[in-house]
Amino acid sequence: MTRKLIFVPALVVFAGLLGVxxxxxxxxxxxxxxxxxxxxxxxxxxxxxxxxxxxxWFSSRARVxxxxxxxxxxxxxxxxxxxxxxxxxxxxxxxxxHGPFPFRDWRAAGWAPVQAVVHTALDLNPQxxxxxxxDAGGHPPLTMVTVVxxxxxxxxxxxxxAFRMPIGAILPGTLAWKxxxxxxxxxxxxxxxxxxxxxxxxxxxGAAGAVKIGDVHLVGRGQRGASGLMLGSSTLHVGAxxxxxxxxxxxxxxxxxxxxxxxxxxxxxxxxxxxxxxxAHMTLGGVDxxxxxxxxxxxxxxAAALVQFQTALQDLRSRRLTQKQLQLRLAEQFxxxxxxxxxxxxxxxxxxxxxxxxxxxxxGHGQVKFDATGYDAGAAGNGWLQHLQGSADxxxxxxxxxxxxxxxxxxxxxxxxxxxxxxxxxxxxxxMLAGLMAKQRMQGLEAQGLLRCTDARCDLALRYRNxxxxxxxxxxxxxxxx
Length: 482
Fold this sequence. Notes:
About 30% of the residues lie in helices and about 45% in strands. The chain is built from 7 helices and 23 strands. The protein has a 23-stranded antiparallel sheet that branches. The protein is globular and about 85 Å long. The model is unreliable at about 1-20 and about 70-85 (pLDDT under 50).
């Protein structure tokens, strides 16, 4: 009997806590939610504003306005008169189911206690929503479910089905979206994140032509370093990228199986960044190239200076400047921060550059280093160039060298014909003259020692040190005599 008397009050207290906890979790989730939106809106071209937030006992409802600012590139009519950007605003609706055990979302949350489960959907006018759902086969145009754990960490799953719609308000044409699925995980303090996104494809079709991108997969992992920079690794794969001319039907740009990998790390205030890119095949202007690869590593980049530059960039973006104003301000910030960026003697190394052409392969490697020894950051002018040193070695097929020289010569002859200084010359004669000029120029470069060629390849050895450039041990004047 005594045990029963003890058990009943305990059961009542437990039931009370179980009933009150969703409301308390709702209050906590609202604070977290508001903080996330404020942080996301602090900088950049996208901002979020809560239009309505109705907190209930077991769930809450939120309506949020999302504004995207797109620079137009036009300068204002007068200094300070208006902002040359275009704003696109749309609404999203969210249902926040409170923890610790949101029974309606037990499949998403699992059986572990959570802070909340957030369902996000587009909140557009009925006509637009009807059109999007019709084009998406009756599916919602956006499905996004975020599980917010007790620690504040979140796990978001995103789905955007295939649809097709005109986008004349942005560019005259049609957007064909083929579907996206993905997952994004974020630590509660935003210090770590992982992404895994797959885009089946997207195409823009217009009178001017078409751009098609297919089979895109992005995997990334980031962690905030001691300096505050987000560092980590990512791999981006694009199965196909094509550009088609709408007038001629030609496809001047084709890339297939493109893989871009990047890694970054920080040690003792210095950042190292490595990028590797591989393309299985590409067609540029009718010329087939591939496979191609480059591998670049930047070392001893000053982390504190990079943080300053990142902060300055975020501040400039928040001011909603025109594109030209932004570029000018960024150039000024870069000039101011240049001494700090250089004081660790940074280095950029091209470890590998290679690609195959129909007439042979191109191979190369090189490096550029800044030696900060004796560098006076306060000195005016371009004295910092004296502290640069670098080298590059290239191996190029002779046929490709002649082809490049002929292309340059033909462009010069075409200008001369247009100006009337060449006389009568049809395209065939222009091509013949360009070939002769290319042969003469190549012989001249070999005679000067600037090219070292055999039947199989031409070698180029470039060296730069103390303000002096040499090609195959021959010094090239950088400043013309007056």
